[in-house]
């Protein structure tokens, strides 16, 4: 029995599955006190929301994201089928230039109505992928890399300015963004614990813009959004594990974001989830140093010149 799952379905639900699997990996790792940025006691006492409430909040946000993703991918498919994209125009050119003789030859002795029907069937077959050989348009690796980087930059830009605005607007912070900061000591599966409005504005709309402006396909979005999900979970894991590749490639990491969750760092380190360029350019960058914490573990401490 054939169980084919469309790229659109995978692009919608794969990041959700990745979120819970990857954050679940960090739960047993949190027992290693030497790698924690806060003690387990602080996690239990300083956080202002229960883990049960956090799980419910994350599931609500993921439900909203799934609905928006389905709508977005549906519109994307309709857009392609209507022939308004370059991909469809390319199929039409191929159809007219390369297959004219074959189609017209088949149409001899048939009415115009039958010819139009055959032409329509041929076009849809090329576009919708009824022919498995013609359905997948392979993009060059350089194009895929460019789309991935553009999506990262779009998401970072959107989230930086929306995130910063939610801190500076007292109403938005008090009624919306403060919900996320109930986690003074972040942990992995609390990464997407936000007010539903914040989840819609920052994550859902930001993700939609990344998808649309980068020009990536639904298949490419599976990898991008899964990667972005892993990165977001890692930034909130509250651990500094040796050999973590994210710490090697990204300045924006679990220690960097932990600074933002502390009272002295709420006006700094807004950037998420990839780069720190906007913080550096706009004066909201707070450097830190990792120091051994009394009782075991590590602590991300801001440098003195940035400490308010």
TrEMBL record:
GO CC list: membrane
UniProt KW keywords: Membrane, Transmembrane, Transmembrane helix
Cross-referenced InterPro entries: Fatty_acid_hydroxylase, Sterol_Desaturase_Related
Localisation: Membrane
One example of a Gene Ontology biological process annotation: lipid biosynthetic process
Domain Fatty acid hydroxylase as annotated: residue spans: 148-284
Transmembrane segments: 12-32, 53-73
MF (Gene Ontology): iron ion binding; oxidoreductase activity
Coiled-coil ranges from the UniProt annotation: none
Similarity comment: family membership: Belongs to the sterol desaturase family.
Protein name per Swiss-Prot or TrEMBL: Fatty acid hydroxylase domain-containing protein
Organism: Rhododendron griersonianum
